[in-house]
């Protein structure tokens, strides 16, 4: 019989509608603005009396508290208004000591029974949820200096192996200079070094005891080092952002030496800057013997005890670049430590250095690049100048008991927080060159909410106009199309929530476009039915022919649009991807609702009935 579905098709449609409604429901529970209080040491937690006193202080200050909850060492105080987050954080920070870290956050409010089914609301992008925007600049001069230091260490080791005497090394700009005892040693060194280091232009300087070899990086080598520095920094920053657990972050290059980082939903700017901008790295060196020449040693103080210091060899065994994985834990005495695994090359170098130096001390040197602002006078005006500097300090100095391999641990850290951040930085990789914050912008939750309200209003206006048009134009069939349109919107929201897709303002534009395209499919079907009725077919035959003959046109039109959306997603970035995601999902839900849902409703209301006329 025409226009009748088998039972399983009706059940399939109902099942899809039920699942769609279930996974769209969490979006009715928006995130609560909140203040998070965490232990800086990992072993402290606020007690109930302290939390009650903080809530009372907030209420007395006119800040409405919705609820509070504790999870381990973290306390979360939910607020009723987003505008109260910053005042609440300042008030709480004044009432807790330095053992706690106070940050603003957004807390999910999805009911437990929905969360238990894996249902969660859509992830919102930076323009809707708020977050931070950083513009970073890569220090290209530091990248060259770091490469020259690595080359200098390799050259010194090569000369020692060949028993060629040298007096010291000096780095200035892109030039590395080696001083020698006499011209014969210099000439022998030049032949040896030039064979293994072809990226330099070589020049002999001085005579006799003033003989030296100046090695300047070629222009091609400089360009390669700078490209490597910014590409490596991009990779490292992406790894760090992924470690932060930020949904849909954006990390991309801007110009020759700048990087843009956007972190949606991150409200604690200080914590984000500390992790994203950290330029910390580690070096593992042997402690110098008493008879080691001064030119081959460097003195460093301990980070946690500046009055103590040690002389280390200039040559580096390995750096943090050789770390393949790292995690923090506690040793047998309850002190924080970082467990490290090295890659193959790093493990080989560590084993080679330690098996021949058992009983000797090995140091872990922590290196961090920072900047400070200095006010100078230029043409009678005060100008703020950014001055980069580097801090180096010893974390630990331990005796080598046996040959080390790919796995070992670092102790001597001040707190679990420091251990956790060091493990994160080592795990995500070190920066190939220091980076500095050029610009920092915070998009507050209130601005994001305003964007959401405007976006929802645009969807509602577009939906209302479409609904009115379909009712006037197609009457009863217009009602069916409008019901399918509402179902389409629910399914689209459910799909985005289930897949963890991020909704942005361009994504909302994609939803509005999807609603229009969903109506297009129904218009094609209904106009085809009208055409068949005018051609003399019966009502049932016209309905059947309308759906069957419009099918090819609908699928062809939507597949071509889907291909465009896939291309936009594959080559686009940021906002373009957000638009492509909603458009792609919208096309699939539109095909389902236009071809399955409306057909099911038409079959239920008109199928199998002896109709003489059709209100369409």
Which descriptors apply to this entry?
616 residues, alpha+beta, Multidrug efflux transporter AcrB transmembrane fold, Alpha-Beta Plaits, Hypothetical Protein, Haloacid Dehalogenase-like Hydrolase, Chain: A, domain 2, 4 domains, 4-stranded antiparallel sheet, 15 helices, 48% helix
Structure report:
- With 616 residues, this protein is α+β, with helices and mostly antiparallel strands.
- The protein has 4 domains: 183 residues, Multidrug efflux transporter AcrB transmembrane domain (Multidrug efflux transporter AcrB transmembrane fold, Up-down Bundle); 76 residues, ACT domain (Alpha-Beta Plaits); 82 residues, 2-Layer Sandwich (Hypothetical Protein, Haloacid Dehalogenase-like Hydrolase, Chain: A, domain 2); 165 residues, Gyrase A, domain 2 (2-Layer Sandwich), CATH 3.30.1360.
- The protein contains 15 helices and 23 strands.
- The strands form 7 sheets. Strands 2-3-1-4 form a 4-stranded antiparallel beta sheet, covered by helices on one side.
- A hairpin with a 2-residue loop joins strand 7 and strand 8.
- Helix 6 packs across helix 8 and helix 13 packs antiparallel against helix 14.
- The chain is elongated, with a radius of gyration of 33 Å.
- The two termini are 22 Å apart.
- The relative contact order is 0.11.
């Amino acid at each position: 019989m025409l226009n009748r579905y088998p039972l399983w098709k009706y059940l399939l449609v109902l099942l899809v509608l039920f699942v769609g409604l279930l996974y769209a429901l969490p979006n009715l529970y928006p995130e609560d603005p909140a203040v998070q209080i965490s232990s800086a040491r990992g072993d402290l937690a606020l007690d109930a009396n302290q939390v009650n006193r903080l809530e009372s202080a907030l209420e007395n200050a006119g800040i409405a508290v919705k609820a509070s909850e504790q999870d381990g060492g973290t306390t979360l105080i939910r607020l009723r208004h987003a505008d109260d987050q910053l005042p609440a954080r300042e008030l709480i920070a004044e009432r807790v000591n330095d053992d706690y870290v106070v940050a603003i956050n957004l807390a999910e409010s999805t009911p437990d029974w929905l969360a238990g089914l894996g249902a969660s609301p859509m992830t919102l992008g930076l323009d809707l949820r708020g977050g931070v925007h950083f513009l970073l600049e890569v220090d290209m001069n530091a990248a060259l200096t770091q490469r020259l230091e690595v080359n200098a260490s390799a050259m010194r080791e090569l000369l020692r192996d060949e028993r060629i005497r040298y007096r010291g090394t000096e780095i200035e700009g892109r030039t590395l200079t080696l001083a020698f005892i006499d011209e014969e040693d210099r000439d022998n060194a030049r032949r040896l070094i030039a064979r293994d280091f072809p990226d330099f232009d070589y020049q002999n300087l001085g005579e006799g005891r003033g003989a030296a070899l100046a090695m300047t990086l070629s222009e091609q080598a400089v360009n390669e080092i700078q490209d490597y520095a910014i590409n490596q920094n991009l990779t490292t920053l992406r790894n760090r952002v992924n470690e932060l657990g930020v949904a849909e972050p954006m990390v991309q290059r801007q110009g020759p030496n700048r990087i843009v980082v956007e972190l949606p939903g991150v409200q604690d700017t200080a914590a984000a800057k500390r992790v994203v901008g950290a330029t910390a790295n580690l070096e593992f060196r042997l402690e110098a013997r008493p008879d080691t020449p001064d030119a081959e040693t460097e003195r460093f103080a301990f980070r946690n005890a500046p009055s103590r210091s040690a002389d280390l060899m200039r040559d580096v065994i390995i750096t943090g670049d050789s770390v393949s994985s790292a995690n923090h834990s506690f040793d047998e005495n309850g002190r924080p430590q970082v467990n490290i695994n090295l890659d193959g090359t790093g493990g080989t170098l560590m084993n080679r250095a330690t098996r021949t130096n058992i009983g000797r001390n090995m140091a872990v040197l922590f290196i961090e690049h920072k900047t400070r602002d200095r006010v100078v006078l230029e043409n009678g005006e005060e100008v703020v100048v950014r001055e980069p500097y580097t801090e180096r300090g010893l974390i630990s100095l331990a005796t080598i008991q046996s040959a080390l391999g790919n796995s070992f641990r670092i102790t001597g850290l001040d707190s679990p927080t420091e251990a956790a951040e060091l493990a994160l930085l080592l795990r995500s990789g070190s920066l190939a060159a220091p980076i500095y914050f050029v610009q920092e912008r915070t998009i507050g939750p209130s601005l994001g909410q305003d964007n959401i309200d405007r976006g929802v209003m645009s969807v509602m206006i577009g939906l209302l106009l479409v609904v009115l048009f379909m009712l006037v134009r197609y009457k009863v069939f217009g009602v069916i199309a409008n019901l399918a349109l509402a179902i389409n919107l629910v399914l689209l929201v459910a799909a985005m929530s289930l897949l963890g897709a991020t909704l942005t303002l361009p994504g909302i534009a994609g939803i509005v476009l999807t609603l229009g395209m969903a109506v297009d499919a129904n218009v094609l079907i209904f106009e085809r039915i009208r055409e068949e009725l005018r051609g003399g077919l019966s009502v049932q035959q016209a309905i059947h022919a309308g759906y069957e003959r419009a099918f090819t046109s609908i699928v062809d039109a939507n597949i071509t649009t889907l291909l465009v959306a896939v291309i936009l997603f594959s080559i686009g970035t940021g906002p373009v991807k957000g638009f492509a995601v909603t458009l792609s999902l919208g096309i699939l839900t539109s095909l389902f609702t236009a071809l399955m849902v409306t057909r099911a409703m038409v079959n239920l209301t008109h199928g199998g009935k002896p109709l003489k006329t059709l209100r369409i």
